[in-house]
Amino acid sequence: MRSGRPAIDEVRRGSDEKIESSEPRFIAIGRVIRPHGLRGELAVEVLTDFPERFDTIEAMYLGGPQQADVWQVATTRWHKDRILLTLQGCEDRTTAEGLRGLLVQIPIEEAMSLPEDEYYPYELVGLDVVTVEGEELGRLSEVIFTNANEVYVVIGPRGQTLLPAIADVIDHVDLNAGQMVVRLIEGLV
Fold first, then answer.
1. Contact yes or no for 4/49 (Cβ under 8 A)
2. Rounded Cα gap, residues 54 and 36, in angstroms
3. Is the pLDDT reported for residue 3 higher than 80?
4. Distance between CA 63 and CA 38 in Å, rounded?
5. Separation in Å, CA 101 to CA 79, 115, 161
6. pLDDT score at 22
7. The model scores a pTM over 0.70
8. Three state DSSP letters for the chain
9. Which of 46, 50, 37, 19 is nearest to 154 (CA)?
10. Which CATH number fits domain 9-110: 3.30.750.200, 3.40.1160.10, 2.40.30.60, 2.30.30.240?
11. What is the pLDDT of residues 49-98, one digit of tens each?
């Protein structure tokens, strides 16, 4: 079971951030890694399953999940597995250096629709997690991305429970009910 690429960097990398019930304002599609050259170009790590969106983007927001500044895109080009961006108003290495580490984001309303049974992390964080037998495990507090699969962090009566996001464990997700139903396999808990 995939959950799409990360909605916000804090979810992708893991954090101690509190669960918020409100939807984020932005969705991250990249992160500024470093300046590229002397003329303000930015090397950006791609954080989206839809990298083609960089080919047509005209404006983006740089900042955090709830607060960001809009920048107009002058040019984009691919370099290996990264995007090189030139932004209007970012014309030298010093300005570009000040943007290092910021998320490259779009408004949440512009998020791509995901296939059935795929979810953005912000849709999953805060769901109540119960077993197929009806035992309440707690609330999904974080999504950790690993090379193998995502891992859902659930905080509840048992303390912290780590659930791999695989079909053998995740029975189904019901966003309308605010619930994830899971099947605990041997060795998980």
1. yes
2. 17
3. no
4. 22
5. 18, 30, 30
6. 52
7. no
8. CCCCCCCCHHHHHCCCCCCCCCCCCEEEEEEEEEEECCCCEEEEEECCCCHHHHHCCCEEEEECCCCEEEEEEEEEEEECCEEEEEECCCCCHHHHHCCCCCEEEEEHHHCCCCCCCCCCHHHHCCCEEEECCCCEEEEEEEEEECCCCEEEEEEECCEEEEEECCCCCEEEEECCCCEEEECCCCCCC
9. 19
10. 2.40.30.60
11. 899 999 999 999 999 877 899 999 999 999 999 999 999 999 999 999 99
Q: Is residue 119 within 8 Å of residue 180, measured between CB atoms?
A: no
Give the count of beta carbons closer than 10 Å to the beta carbon of residue 96.
Answer: 24
Mean pLDDT calculated for residue range 105-133: 91
The CATH architecture annotation of domain 126-182 reads Roll (2.30)
Contacts of 13 by beta carbon, 8 Å cutoff, 6+ apart: 145
Lowest model confidence (mean pLDDT) among 2-11, 26-35, 36-45, 72-81 = 2-11
Task: Compute the distance between CA of residue 161 and CA of residue 118 in angstroms, rounded to an integer.
Answer: 21
Q: Read off the pLDDT of residues 151-165 as tens digits, 9 standing for 90 and up.
A: 999 999 989 999 999
Q: In the chain, pLDDT over 90 holds for what percent of residues?
A: 67
- Is residue 36 within 8 A of residue 143, CB to CB? The reply is no
Domain spans of the chain?
Answer: 9-110, 126-182
